[in-house]
Prior knowledge:
Elements lengths: L1 H31 L3 E5 L2 E17 L3 E3 L7 E3 L7 E2 L4 E5 L1 H107 L9 H73 L2 H26 L3 E3 L4 E6 L13 E5 L4 E7 L1 H4 L7 E7 L5 E13 L5 E6 L10 E18 L4 E2 L5 E11 L2 E10 L1 E5 L3 E5 L9 E5 L7 E5 L2
Parallel strand pairs: 1-21
Antiparallel strand pairs: 1-20, 2-10, 2-14, 3-9, 4-6, 5-8, 6-7, 8-9, 10-13, 11-12, 11-14, 12-13, 14-19, 15-16, 16-17, 17-21, 18-19
Helix pairs in contact: 2-3, 2-4
Amino acid sequence: MDKKRKAVVAGFFIFLFLMLICSLVTKGIYTARLPRVTTTAPREMSLYHPVSAQGAVETGQEYGIYAPAGLRVASIPVRKGDSFQEGEALLQLDVEDLKRILTEKELERQRQQFQQRERESQTAQSRQTGDENLSRAMEDYERAKRTGELQTNRAGAELSRAQAELDQLQKELEQARKDLEQTRKSLEQARKEQAAQSSGQTGSGAVSVSGGDHGETAADIAALSQQCAEREAAVSQLRERVNQQEQAVRAAFLAAQDAHIEYADGLQAALRDVEDAQAAQEGGYQAAADLAGLELAYLEGEIQNLQELIETDGWLYAREGGRITQLCVEIGQRTPDTAQLLYTPDDGQRLIQARLDKEQAQYVSQGTRMQMKYETVSGGKQSREGVIGYLEPQEDGSVLIWLDVTQQGMELGQQVTLESTWQSENYSLVIPLSALHQDANDSDFVYILRQQNGILGVEWHAAVLYVDVMDKNSRYAAVESASLSEETQIILTTSMDLQDNMVVRIVE
């Protein structure tokens, strides 16, 4: 019995041991299949953006060698890129062609001189005619002024006389009306007295009036009636005369207005004739004469230039030392009205021109310092500092930059490497660029670690966290997210592709 019990106990322990071995093997297999990841944490730092470009030394100032237009080129002893010294021959013009053109110019000068003499004669005659026309116009103006003043004065005097006569007639009419009114009152009073006498005679005889007084009253009434009729006729006659005189005053007033209008119109017409005569005298010939003088002076200058070229056998010489940058004419051609040769002086401005792409353009501005690296003719390497003096944005987002290297002693055409580093502001959350990912919508995210309970206990899970990228260079990215801090563990590398909420294994 004891042996059987011991066998059972031994078998139980063997079972437990086998189960332990199986669990360990199963956990090892499960763990071995998990993605192995390394982690990092955001840190505070600045980002550095390198800027580089290739450029070449170019001329910043170009000057031209000029000859009169239309001359045939006989010889060009220099080529593009050649250096020359002050006084060195640069271009020769055809002397025979110069002499032919000079002869034509001299004939043209003689023709213009003859024409100028003819114009001067015509000008003198025109000036005399203009003076006569102006004098006549002034006389017509004075005559129109005197005539107009005389007519307006006469019309004004006639209006004053008619108005004075009207005033006198109105006064006489007023006086006649007063006399008529007085006569009428006297007649009325006499009639009242006669009526009173008649009523006294037919009464009870209380009042007695003699026959002589009655006869005198009747005679007075008859006289007053006669006088009243005469004065009424006088008032009517004066009223008619006043009406006639008022019409005469109105006619005189209209005549005075017409005289004033006619005077103003005549004076204005005469004044315009004077102004026209003055304008014809001052402007007509002066412009033509001045223009002819300018043309002759210009032609004489051309003749002088041609004579000087013939004296130098058609050669154009350098006024200073420099280097030819462009030939604008060929042998046998005629010179254009622009420069025949372009050159840059030995002590002229030197510039480096380079182009920065859109990505690098945001890290430079006017005044940015850049290192200039180049090789000398002997093969030695040189490095100097330059400053961007000007930049020009392009349509594709790139920029052209210029650096003044006049005092650097570089040769034209020298190839130069430009380098600079731009430092950003201090960001609080910066991660390696390899830890940053993008989804199908080009949204940026990182994988962070989170702890969760699983079949084997506490496990690490990879979780997707979307972030905003503030800045980045070739190694680091500055990010921002409300769920991200300096203690957050971010997956840096992984042994296989990750998915959201995937269990992972951290390795050192």
